[in-house]
């Protein structure tokens, strides 16, 4: 899958999440998740992140793929709950294009020292 296609899959899934978040929690997992509150959604992101990390540490490629899909799904639910759109995140990633991760970390440390 090309990156443009991946972006459209994410945006399509985000649209489905947006449509279902006000639905019936008895018939929609998305609606049920939103009904439990943003803190619950954030915890699910953390839980799925740990599961991805464990699969990666074990060298379980199939597990990494499966758990990554779960993580991305719950991350999109969190974005929706927080009022963040995929374009917001894609824009942030675009701003970082060509910027060294080491330089970004150094700048964050320096900014933290100034507080």
Description:
The chain has 115 residues and is mainly α. The protein folds into 2 domains: 3-83, MazG-like (Helix Hairpins, Orthogonal Bundle); 85-115, no CATH class. Helix content is 79%, strand content 0%. The chain has helices at 3-20, 29-35, 38-57, 61-82, 86-96, 101-113. It is globular, with a radius of gyration of 17 Å. The model has no long low-confidence stretch (mean pLDDT 90).
Which short descriptors sum up this protein?
115 residues; mainly alpha; Helix Hairpins; 2 domains; 6 helices; globular
What is the element layout, followed by pairings?
Elements: H1 3-20, H2 29-35, H3 38-57, H4 61-82, H5 86-96, H6 101-113
Helical content class: over 70%
If you average the pLDDT, what whole number results?
90
Radius of gyration: 17 Å
Briefly note the structural class of the backbone: mainly alpha
User: Can you tell me the overall shape?
Assistant: globular
Beta-strand portion reads under 5%
What's the CATH first level of the largest domain? Mainly Alpha
Order of helices and strands: HHHHHH
Number of strands: 0
The termini sit apart by: 43 Å
């Amino acid at each position: 899958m090309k990156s443009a296609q991946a972006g459209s899959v994410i945006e399509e899934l985000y649209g489905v999440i947006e449509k279902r978040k006000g639905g019936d929690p008895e018939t929609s997992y998305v609606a049920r998740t939103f009904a439990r509150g943003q803190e619950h959604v954030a915890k699910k992101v953390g839980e799925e992140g740990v599961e991805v990390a464990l699969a990666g540490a074990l060298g379980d490629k199939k597990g990494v793929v499966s758990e990554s899909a779960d993580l991305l799904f719950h991350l999109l639910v969190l974005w929706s709950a927080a009022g963040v759109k995929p374009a917001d995140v894609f824009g942030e990633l675009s701003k970082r294009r060509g910027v060294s991760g080491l330089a970004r970390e150094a700048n964050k440390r320096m900014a933290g020292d100034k507080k």
